[in-house]
Amino acid sequence: MIMNHTIKAAAIHGFISLIYRKLPMIDYHIHTPLCNHAQGSMKAYIHQAISLGFSEICFLDHLILDGPGKKNSMDIREVPLYMQAIACLKHEFHDRITLRAGLEVDFIPEKIPQIKDILEGFNFDVIGASVHFVMGYNVASRREAPPKDLFDKQEIALRYFEQLDRMLDYDFFDVICHPDIVKKCGIPIPENCGPVIDDILTRISKKNLTLEFNAGGWDHPVGDSYPSEELAIKCHQKNIAFTLGSDAHRPEHVGKNIDKSVALLKKIGYTHVNTFEGRLVRPVPLGMVKCPILS
């Protein structure tokens, strides 16, 4: 009898914990098949987000206007289709989840005028900027990353952060995506990058930009988030805000590891993360309680 009561009490405790647990609420980095390396329909990503209890997600698909990465991006002529699809989905799912429209734009200095023309032609909610290609290598791809025996990996890391620093000379974006992704496939971040990184964080803080806390890295060879906890602590010290993203390229990846992101950011001292609407920042409390049964 005592054992039955114990089992029953444990079951009730587990049910209450499930009801009251703090759920991840947003995922601001979701791709679509238009980038040519993601799988699943846009509706499949939305249904997955709803099933997990998310209240807001953002499609942030690739726009790469030149270079070897262009094959992993929607074509410029597909941007209207992309935006129309999101508009239709916003209407269809308006009573179940909030959908946002964004782009992850690769930083290519000579294409900035064209990028700005594209962005001015549509009502985006948020624009992310990123660096993927350094010294001819795709540091964000396991298939196209620098070879393991490459002698100048430290040079690649330094060049990566120099490109991020140069990107801050421009103002076409709201969020910097996966800020230390150069480490993804085994490129160490050398100590001599410290001053450059510190300068970058100072500039980000002064420009009041948002960094993405990208949870995808926990499933990559590096086994770490982008940014690392150490770098996120420095961001907190400089009052730099984060948004949350899974970098999902498949529906089942939506929201993956975002619970770990929430826990880490709260441990560091963050209380809010940023969402966006019409390129305007909308901070929300970190780890809001969502309780469909009691609400």
Give the helices and strands, then pairings.
Elements: H1 2-20, E1 26-30, H2 42-51, E2 56-63, H3 79-92, E3 98-106, H4 112-120, E4 126-130, E5 133-134, E6 137-138, H5 153-167, E7 175-176, H6 194-207, E8 210-214, H7 229-237, E9 241-245, H8 258-268, E10 272-277, E11 280-285
Parallel strand pairs: 1-2, 2-3, 3-4, 4-7, 7-8, 8-9
Antiparallel strand pairs: 5-6, 10-11
Helix pairs in contact: 5-6
Describe the structure in your own words.
By secondary structure, this protein is of the alpha/beta class. It has one domain (24-285): TIM Barrel (Alpha-Beta Barrel). It has eight helices and eleven strands. The strands form three sheets. The chain has a seven-stranded parallel β-sheet with strand order 1-2-3-4-7-8-9. Strands 5-6 form a two-stranded antiparallel sheet. β7, α6 and β8 (210-214) form a beta-alpha-beta unit. α5 (153-167) runs parallel beside α6 (194-207). It is globular and about 50 Å long.
